[in-house]
Every structure is written in structure tokens, then in C-alpha cells.
């Protein structure tokens, strides 16, 4: 066998191995996707399906018997729409404040020439493991005069130490020191560098942080119970929880068919509420998802 034929044989064998590896990876990824996606799909299908069928525990691929009592009760619940409005306001305002605080702070901590940089990083990291506790924070909010207001929802969670560290790491790996030195030679100030150079090339981290903060704000529950008093200021998660508790309490004192119907309604409400609470985030996520893929290589060295 000639060298050329031997090389071709090795090439064919290698290509066959590559194809096998690709097929295996494809099958593995499909299985993982099914494992991850099916629970969400199950919740959506269960929200349309008769709870009697859902409670059997068998896998659901489609609504075998449509039951819309849960959605009718959810959408007919008047406080729901006001809580939706409150949550949207809290999320938009809170995310804007968090981004305005986290991005500049992360950039400042990434600058190695910043005085006291290590001490500040230690202080922020310390708060990830130790806190003053719920009661001191509650008393602080009362003293600040922001109790029972939107600021009680957005200011205590304005900066996440974890997100701040991620942002700092992004700036350290993505903005070389030579770029800052070159801009200073051209007469650019620190503020000019941050707003004209650092921010425009940092859309990835801004989008990722916006998603992280928006998701956290949208799902706020405990802080609302702690710092809000008026029912008309409650966010979506608290109102949905009250709706479930109310329907569970309504089963008391019922008998016969009425109790069975209320029990079915209470069971389906759990799935309906998950769908109602998650749909806005599921709609928003695809617009930000591309930044996660871009962020994998954003810190790579460019030639």
C-alpha cells in the first residue's frame, strides 16, 4: 500500500470517528435538553389539564382533558393585575438602579491603580458570607423612612456582591491596560474612558447583569412581606401566593361535589400560577440569550 493510500485510509478512519463522536454528542445533548425542558413543558400542560389526570402522576404529552378553571380564577382575581403593574415597576426601576450601581463599581474595582482596592473587595466579599440580620435591616429601613415604599423593594438589593465580582472580573479580562494607557496619551480622562470606551464594549456584561437583576426583582417575595404594608403595593409573587392560600382555605366547610371541585381548582392553581409568573421572563430571555454565547469568548485575546 502506497503512502498516499495509507494517508487516505487514516483520513477516512478519522472522519468516521468524528462522525460517531458528533452523533453521540448530538444524542446526548438532545437527552439533556429533554430532561431540562420537560418539567417546564409538564407545568404548562398540567395548567390546562384536569387535576384528576395530573394527580395520577403519569407523564403528560398533551392535555388529555382540558380544564380551565385555574386560569379563569387567576385572571378573574382583581388584585392580580395591580400586582403585575407593581412588579413591572419594581423590576424596571430596581434593574436600572442596580445596573447604574454595579457596572461603575465593577469597573472601579477592576482598576489596579485604585487606592484601597483590595480592602473594598474584601468588604464586598465579606457581605456574601455575613450579614447584620433581618431585624437590623428592618430597623434601618424604618429609620431611613422608606418603609412601605418602592425604595424598600429596590434599594436593599441594589447591588449583589456576586454580580459585582463577576462584573469586576469581566472588566479585568476584557479591557487591557494598554487600551487605558493609549487613551490617556490621547488626552482621555478616566470618566471619558469609562463612558466612551469601556461601556460601549461591555454590552455583554450589562445585558447579563440586567437579566440577573431583573429575574431577582421579578421573583421578590420575602422582602415584600417584610417591608410593604399596603395590599395595593404588593408584587405579583405575594398576590399569587395569597390566591393559592385563599382557595385552599375555601375548601374548609365544603362537602361532596363542591369540595371536590374546589380541591381540583386549588391543585390546578399551583400550575397556573407558575405559568403566569414565569411567562414574562420566558418572553424576555431570548432577547438576552445571545449575550451569554458571546460572553464565552468576549475575554479572549484579540489579534
Put the structure in a nutshell:
The protein is mainly α. The protein contains 14 helices and no strands. Helix 4 (79-110) runs antiparallel to helix 11 (203-218) and helix 13 runs antiparallel to helix 14.
Description of the structure:
With about 300 residues, the protein is an all-alpha fold. The protein contains 14 helices and no strands. The longest helix has about 45 residues, at about 5-45. Residues about 295-303 have low confidence and may be disordered.
Net shape:
flat
Distance between the termini: 44 Å
Average pLDDT, rounded to a whole number, is 81
Fraction in helix? over 70%
The structure class reads mainly alpha
List low-pLDDT spans.
Answer: 296-303
Number of separate helices = 14
Number of strands: 0
Strand content: under 5%
- Characterize the main sheet: none
Q: In angstroms, what is the radius of gyration?
A: 26 Å
Amino acid at each position: 500500500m502506497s503512502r498516499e493510500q495509507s494517508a487516505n485510509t487514516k483520513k477516512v478512519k478519522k472522519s468516521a470517528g468524528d462522525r460517531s463522536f458528533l452523533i453521540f454528542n448530538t444524542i446526548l445533548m438532545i437527552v439533556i435538553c429533554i430532561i431540562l425542558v420537560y418539567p417546564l413543558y409538564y407545568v404548562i400542560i398540567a395548567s390546562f389539564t384536569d387535576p384528576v389526570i395530573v394527580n395520577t402522576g403519569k407523564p403528560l404529552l398533551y392535555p388529555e382533558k382540558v380544564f380551565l378553571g385555574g386560569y379563569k380564577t387567576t385572571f378573574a382575581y382583581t388584585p392580580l393585575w395591580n400586582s403585575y403593574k407593581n412588579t413591572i415597576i419594581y423590576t424596571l426601576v430596581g434593574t436600572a438602579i442596580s445596573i447604574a450601581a454595579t457596572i461603575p463599581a465593577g469597573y472601579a474595582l477592576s482598576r489596579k491603580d485604585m487606592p484601597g482596592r483590595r480592602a473594598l473587595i474584601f468588604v464586598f466579599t465579606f457581605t456574601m458570607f455575613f450579614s447584620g440580620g433581618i431585624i437590623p435591616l428592618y430597623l434601618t429601613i424604618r429609620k431611613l423612612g422608606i418603609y412601605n415604599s418602592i425604595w424598600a423593594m429596590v434599594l436593599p438589593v441594589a447591588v449583589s456582591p456576586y454580580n459585582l465580582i463577576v462584573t469586576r472580573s469581566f472588566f479585568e479580562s476584557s479591557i487591557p491596560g494598554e487600551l487605558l494607557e493609549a487613551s490617556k496619551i490621547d488626552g482621555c480622562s478616566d470618566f471619558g474612558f469609562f463612558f466612551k470606551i469601556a461601556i460601549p464594549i461591555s454590552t455583554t456584561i450589562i445585558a447579563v447583569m440586567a437579566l440577573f437583576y431583573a429575574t431577582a426583582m421579578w421573583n421578590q417575595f420575602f422582602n415584600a412581606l417584610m417591608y410593604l404594608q399596603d395590599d395595593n403595593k404588593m408584587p405579583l409573587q405575594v398576590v399569587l401566593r395569597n390566591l393559592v392560600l385563599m382557595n385552599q382555605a375555601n375548601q374548609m366547610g365544603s362537602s361532596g361535589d363542591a369540595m371536590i371541585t374546589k380541591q381540583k381548582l386549588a391543585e390546578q392553581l399551583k400550575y397556573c400560577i407558575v405559568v403566569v409568573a414565569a411567562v414574562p421572563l420566558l418572553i424576555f430571555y431570548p432577547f438576552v440569550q445571545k449575550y451569554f454565547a458571546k460572553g464565552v469568548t468576549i475575554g479572549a485575546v484579540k489579534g
